[in-house]
Specification:
Elements lengths: L2 H10 L2 E4 L4 E2 L2 E2 L1 H23 L12 E9 L6 E12 L3 E10 L2 E11 L23 E2 L14 E8 L10 E8 L8 H9 L15 E10 L1 H4 L9 E11 L2 E9 L5 E11 L2
Antiparallel strand pairs: 1-5, 2-3, 4-7, 4-11, 5-6, 6-7, 8-9, 9-10, 10-12, 11-14, 12-13, 13-14
Helix pairs in contact: 1-2, 2-3
């Protein structure tokens, strides 16, 4: 099942199927689960906006963009049925807040809070950092797929390492990044594609380990730049990614990352708390 079909099914049916081929250890790839849950979030958002704007002369649902999403990976999501539910907590004049949960049986596997907001007139403008000056993708080392060592889901992506080192290489550099794209274009990039792309890289802390050890995300916060995101047209284009380990001890690591589009425009800021079992 291709990525777009997975997202379409998740939007049309709250009890959608996680297909085989997307595992990460004993769990499903978190970026896929987040993208599936987001489909229900966006569906509820659109319904709320249309109801609120009936008869209004100004604005449209398209004006209200995702600004921030906080995700908690409560339990491993397995292949099979995933039931997603979302509800609007408050729909104000400019901002809308939603809450969502993904269940398997009686267990919540993923929870999320999403904040959407219309653009506002402001005198403040902070120019984001420029994209890293990475070598061209063809000149960078590819992240290989090694069955039993590299997560299964990575077969759907093309990685080129331009900063840091391979996972489990014992590197002293607390960073990892480079280029990434869907191995086969999934068509026009949407927020669902973005959630998968920015979460597809191995946690940067793994490059600092000398021996194999699993890791998993506990919490993940993503902040988007809607204006720049609209400039990206295809999920199969190359995207630049750079993650840095800000702090790590007691088997946990705080990792911040950024994603730029093919034009070098900052698209998203990411921050994760990862558990490292080694």
């Amino acid at each position: 099942m291709d990525f777009n079909t997975i997202l379409r099914n998740a939007r049309q049916n709250p009890a959608a199927e996680i297909p085989a081929g997307w595992t990460q250890g004993r769990a499903t790839f978190g970026g896929l689960v987040a993208a599936m849950l987001y489909q229900q979030i966006d569906s509820q958002l659109q319904n709320a906006l249309k109801s609120a704007q009936e008869g209004a002369a100004e604005g449209s649902p398209e004006d209200t963009a995702l600004r921030s999403m906080t995700i908690s990976f409560v339990a491993p999501a397995a292949t099979g049925e995933l039931e997603s539910r979302a509800q609007v907590l408050r729909a104000g004049r400019s901002a809308v807040q939603l809450e969502a949960h993904a269940h398997q049986g009686e267990q919540v596997v993923t929870a999320a809070l999403a904040s959407f907001g219309k653009p506002r007139t402001s005198t403040i403008s902070v120019v984001p950092d420029k994209a890293p000056e990475f070598r061209e993708p063809q000149a960078c080392e590819a992240l290989p797929y090694i069955e039993g060592l590299v997560p299964e889901f990575t077969q759907h992506f093309d990685y080129r390492i331009a900063a840091g080192a391979m996972p489990y290489s014992g590197s002293s550099e607390p960073c990892l990044g480079g280029w990434i794209r869907f191995k086969e274009s999934a068509g026009p990039a949407t927020t669902g594609h973005l959630l998968a792309l920015i979460d597809a890289w191995p946690p940067a802390v793994l490059s600092m380990l000398k021996d194999f050890a699993p890791a998993s995300s506990l919490t993940w916060t993503l902040e988007l730049m809607p204006a720049a995101f609209q400039a990206q047209t295809d999920s199969g284009d190359w995207w630049q990614y750079l993650a840095e380990v800000e702090q790590a001890e007691d088997g946990y690591a705080a990792i911040q990352a950024r994603l730029w589009n093919a034009e070098g425009k900052l698209i998203a800021l990411s921050r994760q708390t990862a558990a490292v079992f080694g």
